[in-house]
Amino acid sequence: MIFTGIVEEMGKVNRMVRGGQSFQLTIEAGKVLEDVQIGDSIAVNGVCLTVISFNDQQFTVDVMPETVDKTNLKHLRSGHPVNLERALRLGDRMGGHLVQGHVDAVGTIAQKEKLDIAIIYCIKAPQQVLKYTVPKGSITIDGISLTIIDVFPDSFTVSLIPHTAQQTVLGNKIPGDGVNLESDIIGRYVEHLLNFDKDHKQGGLSVEVLAENGFL
Known about the structure:
Elements (H helix, E strand, L loop, with lengths): L8 E10 L4 E6 L12 E4 L2 E8 L3 E6 L1 H6 L10 E6 L18 E11 L2 E7 L2 H4 L7 E4 L2 E9 L2 E6 L1 H6 L10 E6 L1 H16 L6 H6 L4
Antiparallel strand pairs: 1-2, 1-6, 2-5, 3-4, 3-6, 4-5, 7-8, 7-12, 8-11, 9-10, 9-12, 10-11
């Protein structure tokens, strides 16, 4: 599934039923239920989850052990707000960037400060995310498509406009809170293609090939 990182609404966790290593979430919502079907994908705080049941006020999803381990969904409780976005349909506007709903890692808000009308966040992140992070590039934080301001050895900064702060869960988060991070898929594909020749011992895309053909 593909998302855009443009949050459609904030839902609310109504119920959380824990299993051994997994759990089931029931989330109150409005807009994302307008055309929902069993099997549809909805991004919950940036995590692609599958609808297993619904009514006119809420939907239910399963959260598997891998997702529990790799995301901040395990910290949700009844009453917590969550960012919601339906999967992209052909013909929809691409308001953000290409988002898969596959979280790479959980980062930590290191600093939050106001700059005029904007809120600047400094997010500490692991190298597996930072290596795809570039100034003015895109990153997904709790399902929100944001533009990176600066990148540092162990962190990066982003800016929230008032609308995003008011309409998403990130606006209420504080230093120390964890956030789901998904790096830009294009960067991951470029890395894979550049390493193809080295990994497979055969012809492939390289920096030299890109330069020879006028791309660098």
